[in-house]
Specification:
The chain is of the alpha/beta class. It has a single domain, classed as 4-Layer Sandwich (Purple Acid Phosphatase, chain A, domain 2). Helix content is 28%, strand content 22%. The protein has six helices and twelve strands. The chain has a six-stranded mixed sheet with strand order 3-2-1-10-11-12, covered by helices on one side. A six-stranded mixed sheet has the order 4-5-6-7-9-8, with helices on one face. It starts with 9 loop residues before the first strand and ends with a strand. The mean pLDDT is 93.
């Protein structure tokens, strides 16, 4: 496929932290739905290949979580292409298996390949207060972070079995000559978040692992509602602003990434360029 500045290899829509709520005033809920439909119109107008939903799709209120998921899904599922979902902490107000069925996931972490790019989607709530640890090492990880409440019980870690899987995916992508985009709801670098929001509990270990592979080009995250960016060992760590805070930072309600040979361009809902990131 011949590409140019206006003809990337791949386009995908991006949205994170919708925090869809049915407890709002009717006018506010109607505006949220209208703003989501504007995002869908934008993605369809630019013919994106898929949609990446980076987590916390629902607010997760005790009384309304099922209805939140039903309503927001009824809007997003009008998107004519595939939606790649990431599990966030608010999502797990619903049982994990119920959420995975709604998202069409067979596993909370997974990978897929498109046009020479391998997307590796992590489950940052793999080890968390919301899930029974599966291995002795994961039990130790959970105990460690329970002892440090300043690290937040609404965050989590990538467990030992998922880390083995992640390394295998990275090795296979390297052998296949694929560029890698890592995706996680939680930020992986302290400089891309703040103390209030926190980050992946074992962020340093995961960041070092992915940085040990020269074909990893970017890591995309949500969770920190105001967005952030850092370059680490040549990898672009991009944290996208939250849809739910769109009135506070209207510069990014939703957006789109364009993957070219050697670079990634990220645009906002007005199609203005926010990042032009060269690959190493």
């Amino acid at each position: 496929m011949v590409t140019s500045a206006n003809n990337p290899l791949l386009r995908f829509g991006i949205i994170t932290d919708i925090h869809f709520s049915t407890e709002n005033e009717p006018a506010a809920a109607a505006q949220t739905a209208a703003d989501l439909r504007d995002c869908l119109e934008y993605w369809q107008h630019h013919d994106v290949d898929f949609l990446l939903q980076l987590g916390d799709q629902i607010n997760g209120s005790d009384k309304h979580k099922k209805e939140e998921l039903r309503q927001v899904s009824s809007i997003l599922n009008t998107f004519p292409g595939s939606i790649r979902h990431v599990i966030g902490n608010h999502c797990l107000a619903l049982p994990r298996q119920e959420l995975m069925r709604a998202y069409g996931l067979h596993s909370p972490f997974y990978a897929f390949t498109m046009k020479g790019f391998r997307f590796i989607v992590l489950d940052g709530m793999d080890v968390s207060v919301l899930r029974m640890a599966e291995t002795p090492e994961d039990c130790q990880t959970l105990a460690l972070f329970r002892a440090h409440p300043e690290l937040h019980d609404y965050c989590g870690a990538v467990g030992v079995q998922q880390r083995v899987w992640l390394r295998k995916e990275l090795e296979e992508a390297e052998l296949a000559g694929e560029s890698v985009i890592v995706v996680c709801h939680f930020p992986l670098l302290p400089e891309t978040t703040d103390q209030k929001h926190g980050l992946l509990w074992n962020h340093a270990e995961i960041a070092e692992l992915i940085a040990s592979f020269s074909n990893v080009q970017a890591c995309l995250s949500g969770h920190y509602h105001y967005g952030g960016y850092a370059l680490y060992h040549g990898i672009h760590f991009v944290v996208f602003p939250a849809f739910v805070n769109r009135l506070e930072h209207p510069r990014f309600t939703c957006g789109m990434a364009e993957l070219h040979h050697g670079r990634m361009v990220i645009r906002d809902q007005r199609h203005e360029r926010r990042y032009d990131l060269s690959f190493h």
